[in-house]
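Our collaborator T.R. sent over the components below with a one-line note: 'Predict the complex.' Nothing else. No constraints on interfaces, no templates requested, no preferences about which chain binds where. So this is a plain run: every listed entity goes in together, and whatever single assembly comes back becomes the starting point for the next discussion.
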Amino acid sequence: MKTSKNRVASGALVAFAVTGLLAGFSASCASETQKMEVKDADKHACKGMNACQGKGGCKTDANACAGKNACKGKGGCATADKHACKGMNACKAQGGCKSGDNGCAGKNSCKGKGGCAVPVQH
Amino acid sequence: MQRWMQIVITHPRGVAAGVGTEEAKAEYDIVPDELERLIAPSGSLSGLERISIYSEMYTLRLLDVLREDFSVLLNALGERRFEALARDYIAAHPSRHPNLNQFGRHLAGFVASRDDRHAAFLSELATLERAASEVFDAERAAALSRVELEGLAPESWPRLRLERVPATRVLSFRYPVNRYYVDVKEGRGPRIPKPAPSFALVYRKDWIVWRANLSREQHALLEALATGAELGAALESLSAREDLDLARLQRELAGWFREWSAEGVFRSIG
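Returned assembly:
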């Protein structure tokens, strides 16, 4: 009996889930409700994240950004050893870094990107 | 010569210790006092001092990597204790991967094994920070699209398998580590918290890594989907939980999926 009820319920839940998924594709930014939730939870949803630079309203935490997104195009790969260059956070635009997309992925391309700062909790 | 230099420069206890290793002796069988046979002194530095500059630079670079990737753990421990931990870690888990983003991958486990009354919490904190690094560096993958979903017949929805993109981590903690993280970043100087279960989703969108708190139910659902469960089965399993408020789930579920969809959490099914 309980199983049957649950199946009925899960049928409705599946519909809710897919409805939500479809709605998400239209949500280029979070809804006002979600924004409020973020504000309630964290006033600085961006602060201390890994990609503060270039985002309005982000109080950039130098430590949090250091070595992550702010290195693009910077010179100065350490010369102590090969490790110091490969796979570092600033592979792009630097000679000698051959770590491939995975090594650089998510590291250098963030700078200046816009983007929704919601609906996340920091 | 390059191989010998690599061995002695990267030895966690310094050049003199590195010179004495069997590995180094296989290249050049010398003792530290004979180092200047290979490394000429300068006007002001001995051969040992000259090559030790590189050795210390190597260690400092690894320390920098750990400081950057575990900045909240650093804050929790303080500079002195963090550096002691990091130096022990460097010795226990030497950098072996050409990508330094991999270097901190054992730190959470290493912290857990330490004799520290807060080891469990600190390890979870390291886990959260490590997850952010992994997500930052994870392979790109196309997200589920509207076209794909609209192409499915409604009767097939219960059998939908929603796999997450690689740049996501679903985490379960015994401590409120994400709250602690936020408090540190906002300068509130939090104390080590008491145990309290918490759950988090770490994901990347447009090359930016985010952390989001999850409810226990959201965590359970994402974990079920991650095991390959079909959407209908995962929801049925969730709705069967004794402690679940079904009416609330029905109110909130669409919002959960809306958020996950908008954030690109699920992978293309194409």
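Summary for T.R.: Chain B is about 50% helix and 10% strand.
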